[in-house]
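Annex B. Sample input.
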Amino acid sequence: MFTWGKYKGLTLGYVKSHNSAYLQWIIGADAIPDVWRIASARVLKGEDISDLALPIAKKSALEHTPDAPVDKAAAIEFRLVNKTTATVIMPFNRQLISLFKYEVDGRKWNAEKRQWEFPCAQLIKAVNTFKGHPITIAPEVQAVMDSLVDRRKDLDEIRSLETTKFRVPGLKLDLFDFQNTGVQFIDRTGGRCLIADQPGLGKTAQSIAYAQLHNLKTLIICPLSVVLNWRKEIEKFTGKSATIWDTKGKDGRINSQFHITHYDAASKIHKDLRALECDLLICDEATFLKNRRTIRAKAIFGSWVERKKFPGIKTKHCIFLTGTPVLSRPIEAFTLLNFLDKERFNNFFHFVERYGGWKGAAPMNLSDLHDRTKDLVIRRKKMEVFKDFPLKQRNELYVEMTKDDYKEYQILLKELFGYWASENRPSVQHVPKIQAFLSERKLPRVIEMVDEFLDNERPILIFSCFLEPLRKLQKHYGDQAVIFTGEMNKKSRQKAIDALRDGDAKIGLFSLRAGGMGIDGLQEKIDTVLFLDMDWLAATHEQAEDRTHRMGQKNPVQVYYCICEGTIDEHMRDILKEKQEIASQIVDGQSFDLIAQKSFFRDFIRRINTVYKAQFSEENVEE
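Annex B, continued. Sample output.
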């Protein structure tokens, strides 16, 4: 039983069932005595702690703790305070109160009326929290709940549709059935939702169609690399010209229906963008806004602390687009969910208490989060909407280094361990030096492979986290290759894309972060992708792969991961596979053992420690 802290007088078992994140915090808190850290770890695993010297709850104390039986005759009453706020009146019971506080976000204690108040949007959640207890629900409360249930039922039916009669009049091109379903979903949510379809399924077209459906003045904020692509898609589907905004001004008419800018510009010209008074805000690659403390997030969403400087861009409708499974990281999802529905997701600290992710704590209760967001988020997979969609096959392309190269690699690895030892902790900071070294050593094998592809008239995309190997490949292949990096302006980037689309170039050399998203049209010419090296995010690779694995692709897509045998490449590849599997499970609403979830960088550290420190020890013995 806790003798300290906010759960003083309560048992570890109770805390595990109501706030397991607190026990996870204890495990990682150096200032907490070891006995409590060990006990917390055992309780989370369901193990016995009777051998530990912890205070034991006496029988008399138990009668007053939340673990005691709750009086089933205690009436719990729900009423409305106003159109947006409900209240629950219950007898004082620590267990009921603690359960309510844990399950319901945004609750507030009204000391004057001595009652808990919370957003009406949380009514279903709040009522379900007290299942098994006598509940009285006022008629006006029941009416609100019925409308919430009907809305969720409608959206569940829409997301399950294989065909729909829903159409958007006035489009120059027809949408696929699943895209019409997506627009129908957006419409039923009132134009505030997140479209999380896998890359390549036309999220851009769906959001443009919704704007066209209601003739909404629309502001689109996207990565710089896809600004021109958005303009082309708008013209293709609506026949209308869009105005592009950047820090130098605008390119187009002030009275256009569609206005486009990129994230870096939006943080500097947000006053001009607010002055447009748009009806619909579309944020493409919305994970750019996952950190609510960044200037770009403040400029777009607003900041309560700095509200005079950052009042935010206010629109009635808002659509977020992302192919990344943001729900796998609750702390990052909160910013987007809060902007979409401030009634249900209005308190950051309540949110992370329920779903974890704060200060390194593992995510939890993700099935509940998935269920709570079903009326805000829709995601479809390629294989679900296109039964005969070409397959995507991932392959490992192993490269054997020379003895001299491997000796140099070992020196760099020892150097890496030296940095970590001097800093008293491992960090990602010094790993790129080894990755860049390995990427350079892969070039001879990559050139052999690319030559073979060119001989067979097969173009290829090559991605790397580093610019130097891409520049060397560009110099080697001359006019046959085009390069696409973050330092290029949008016209140069578009010129490179057009050269690949038109077949004037056969090799696309892409910086992974700059060229891994938002580019369309390459799938009609290219079906092969190669990664020289690897990023820590599986979603970054999936987006890059799907520059070719998207609608319009007729051939199976081959993806090659270049790996130097016997190096950290092998560990990173294994970890990426694990991350992709977990992300896929979470976003599709499937469950998995959260206790088994781990820090992937820590896992990476353990792997190279096990393999290489043993090897260094053997070398020292020989010397």
